[in-house]
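User: Hey, quick favor. My workstation is busy. Could you predict this chain's structure for me?
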Amino acid sequence: MKKRSLPRRQTGFSLVELGVVMAIVGIIGIIVWRWVVSTREPLQRPAILSQLAEAQAAVEGFVLTRHRLPCAAADANGNEDCANTTSAVYLPWRILGLNSSFGALHYGVNRGGVGLDLAVLPPTLVSPDLNINFSPDIPVVALDTDSAVNAAAADVKAAITAASHRRTQVNGLDWCRVLRRFAGNLTAAGVLEAGNLTASIPVAFVLVHPGVNNVFEGSNVLGGVGGWRFDFPGRPQAFDFDDIAVAIGPADLSARIGCAARLGNMQVAGQGAYTAYDDARVVQEYWSLRLFDIDQAESALASAQTGVALAAVNLALATGSAALAVASAANTEGITIFGIVLSVANAVAAGVEVGLAATDLDEAKEVLQASKDKEAAVRAYVIQLYETFTQSLNAAVLMDQKGLNP
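Assistant: No problem, here it is.
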């Protein structure tokens, strides 16, 4: 009798089991995908902020070497297009020494307002003498042959010459004056603004990153409604907006690159030089009067000396006349008392005149010495003013040469 064989048990997953496994894998995949999506932005946002900070530092550093803000680029090639003031909206990464990854950033700089263009070389608005026409002929060297005066005067002329040469040299301080003017004219027509159709704020420059989706949105869309190209910095992120922007106003930019402090120091140095210059001009006139007093005192002394000599001659003549009168009276038959008395009176008067002339001479000597002492004091003060003026003006020249550099 033949035995019946039992069916062999199958190994592996059944269709039901396979379906369950695939469902579990799918659920896990969805969870992982959602986790990756949710964590992708936090991982990229610090990198975006870091890139914007690096671009901002490069733009501000550009001012230190070029004395202006960079113009925007017309496309992502990274080259400035300074002639295009309307549609150029990309960061000129190449001229800033950045890599091509920065070519995706939008960049705007204020080009509007008369005399407020921050992307052109400024006019020479700041110079060591604050554009005051110091005359190289300020020292009155012809009035004196004193070597110390002439040396101080030569230093003054050299300082004035050095300052006049800086008048045509443009640097960051001149640009700071334009920025300061811009800060005082924020409502001027055509200035750069960030915002939307209902509200906006004037800015010196703005940088915009397209965000995680790499697409510009909101008012950052080139050629968008109303012509806006830059949205408010710090606009809340939403499903339809994830751009990240950095906008720098004129006051903030001035503080960041040190405009206020440098212009203040230049103002102090220049004003100090001008004050010393003004004082020197006044004291020079006083010095001239002191020299004139010496001339007058010397003339008075000479007159007093002449007066003494004439009085002595008169005394000698009067004394001789008296002696002659006495001798004549002795040889005559009678003594002429009247003649003798008159001769003696003349001799006495001549003696008094000699005394008065001697007193005048002493006074003239004292006046002359006093005049010389006053002139010496004024001379020393003039030298001091020349030195103060030279130091102040040279300090201003050094500040102008330094500009905004550390």
